[in-house]
Automatic annotation (TrEMBL):
Residues 17-345 form the Enoyl reductase (ER) domain. Belongs to the zinc-containing alcohol dehydrogenase family. CDD domains: CAD3. It comes from Debaryomyces hansenii (strain ATCC 36239 / CBS 767 / BCRC 21394 / JCM 1990 / NBRC 0083 / IGC 2968) (Yeast). Its EC number is 1.1.1.1. It comes from the Eukaryota. InterPro entries: ADH-like_C (IPR013149), ADH-like_N (IPR013154), ADH_Zn_CS (IPR002328), ER (IPR020843), GroES-like_sf (IPR011032), NAD(P)-bd_dom_sf (IPR036291). The lineage of its organism: Eukaryota, Fungi, Dikarya, Ascomycota, Saccharomycotina. This is alcohol dehydrogenase. Keywords: Metal-binding, NAD, Oxidoreductase, Zinc. Pfam families: ADH_N (PF08240), ADH_zinc_N (PF00107). SMART domains: PKS_ER.
Length: 349
């Protein structure tokens, strides 16, 4: 611990919606079951915006250091930790820690643990140079990995990979990704293509159309120009999508996806617009036997698998690196829907 500084740079907010302050704070000390990670890079997720606003029905820790896509180097290890060594590469995920004793944890559904500790929400996250993580839930990153590129995989990548698994698709079937041009969507396209699915992307604007096709999307529907999205999807797929991954934060888009999914298809909800509800006729849902499922973040096995896709060169996250001190403007870009790909902060700047 002697080489670890006492203070560090971080972005902190004292109240929901309050100033995002880039300032000096103390370096945290790892508990007996935690590791301390020197965070090199951290992805910026739309969830970070919700944490700052405090608009979810789950209170956040205040004051708070946000961030939950941190990639760095292990610099200290708690006395009861096994399986980690100083110098290992490690990732900070949304699930910072879980009880590992409840029925959900015992059945590999750690994300549903009622006592989960959440990075950048109930636990100070990765928008700082040093952060703690539960040793069991921290992600193992292969040596030699580009930490800036792998950072978004730790939340965005794992989240969409889990969502695609939840859709129960077969290779060759159609999957629609709603909100495909953003950080989650751009990764979802690549995972879907790598898993053998045929991809249709929905987003707005010609720039996003070119972008999603470059990532492997077979077709693109521009919601700003389409006169009938449901008809367009049904025409392209000859009857409707077998699965839909809703990563957008549009309540209308989520409900609409129930119309263009084909009989016995699966609509997966991922995006979390505050206060939103999904509406579909019960008669239609029953007669067509569609499934509407929620997909939260993945478990430890999902994380390992998602990172493996990345390590094999099948997934490349389109990133733009900014300094940690430049984080506040990125929140504004997210609010305005101007994010293309994923922003990643370099904690050294």
């Amino acid at each position: 611990m002697s080489s670890i500084p006492e203070t560090q740079k971080a972005v902190v907010f004292e109240s929901n919606g309050g100033p995002l302050e880039y300032k000096e704070i103390a370096v945290p000390k790892p508990k007996s079951t935690e590791i301390l990670i020197n965070v090199k890079f951290s992805g910026i997720c739309h969830t970070d915006l919700h944490a700052w606003k405090g608009d979810w029905p789950l209170p956040v820790k205040l004051p708070l250091v946000g961030g939950h896509e941190g990639a760095g180097v292990v610099v200290a290890i708690g006395e009861n930790v096994k399986g980690w060594e100083i110098g290992d590469l490690a990732g900070i995920k949304w699930l910072n820690g879980t009880c590992m004793n409840c029925e959900f944890c015992q059945n590999s559904n750690e994300s549903n643990c009622p006592n989960a500790d959440l990075s950048g929400y109930t636990h100070d996250g990765s928008f700082q140079q040093y952060a703690t993580a539960d040793a069991v839930q921290a992600a193992k990153i292969p040596k030699g990995t580009d930490l800036a590129e792998v950072a978004p995989i730790l939340c965005a990548g794992v989240t969409v990979y889990k969502a695609l698994k939840s859709a129960n698709l077969k290779a060759g079937q159609w999957v629609v990704i709603s909100g495909a041009g953003g950080g989650l969507g751009s990764l979802c396209i690549q995972y879907a293509a790598a898993m053998g699915y045929r991809v249709i992307s929905i987003d707005g604007g010609e720039e996003k159309g070119e972008f999603v096709k470059s990532l492997g999307s077979e077709a693109y529907v521009d919601f700003t120009k389409s006169k009938d999205i449901v008809a367009d999807i049904k025409k392209i797929t000859n009857g409707g999508a077998h699965g839909v991954i809703n990563v957008s934060v549009s309540e209308k888009a989520m409900s609409q996806s129930c119309e263009y999914v084909r009989s016995r298809g699966t609509v997966v909800l991922v995006g979390l617009p505050a206060g939103a509800e999904i509406k579909t006729p019960v008669f239609d849902a029953v007669v067509r036997s569609i499934a509407i499922v929620g997909s939260y973040v993945g478990n430890r096995a999902d994380t390992t698998e998602a990172i493996d896709f990345f390590s094999r060169g099948l997934i490349k996250c389109p990133i733009k690196i900014v300094g940690l001190s430049e984080l506040p403007p990125v929140y504004e870009f997210m609010e305005q829907g101007k994010i293309l790909g994923r922003y990643v902060v370099d904690t050294s700047k």
